[in-house]
Design a protein that fits this description.
Elements lengths: L1 H16 L37 H11 L13 E3 L12 H13 L5 E6 L6 H21 L7 E7 L10 H7 L1 E6 L3
Length: 185
């Protein structure tokens, strides 16, 4: 009995759905196929159809996703500066080193080279040794923060690769640094 009632109810519903009246109230038979129907007025302008992405837009979106190349990201900063005749990482550069440590521990496949530099004061040999100590102090901090030893290489350029040419304190300060260089660059 329930099966018969369900069948009758379903047939009634289907019959009601197939009526000959459309939304505008005119019966289907009364519609003329050649009649032009006017579209309702829009209160908002139509949305623009997005164009296909260009190679340039794809490249720029890829580069902005890379935190190492995003100028707004701390990882785009790569230099740790030191005081005169010092190899101690200053407090102001510890967040920078920590950010690179976090990135490297998350991305174990990446490797870096830390390039130690010195200003031109002192002998060539002394500046090479000082540059090495500076690179090693940044490496030690990265190791303490969990970066793998196999991810880090150090090298000293001493006074051989100055960033600033000049014999003033501003130039010297610019050259007393360790630079972090990623293998992908």
């Amino acid at each position: 009995m329930n099966r018969i009632l369900m069948t009758v109810a379903l047939a009634g519903l289907l019959g009601a759905c197939s009526g000959g009246v459309k939304e505008d109230g005119a019966p289907v038979e009364d519609r003329k196929p050649d009649a032009v129907q006017q579209a309702p007025m829009r209160s908002t302008p139509p949305r623009a159809v997005p164009s296909a992405p260009t190679v340039r837009s794809i490249e720029s979106s890829v580069s902005t996703r890379n935190p190492l190349k995003d100028p707004g990201n701390i990882l785009s900063k790569r230099s740790v500066y030191f005081d005169y005749d010092s190899m101690t990482v200053k407090d102001e550069f510890k967040p920078l080193v920590s950010a690179h440590a976090k990135y490297l521990t998350t991305n174990r496949g990446h490797k870096i080279v830390i390039q130690g530099n010195a200003d031109e004061r002192g002998s060539r040999e002394y500046n090479l040794a000082l540059g090495q100590r500076r690179a090693d102090s940044v490496k030690k901090m990265l190791l303490l923060l969990g970066v793998g030893d196999s991810q880090i290489e150090t090298i000293s350029f001493g006074e051989e690769k100055p960033r600033a040419k000049g014999a003033d304190e501003g130039s010297y300060a610019e050259n007393r640094r360790s630079d972090i260089v990623y293998d992908s660059e």
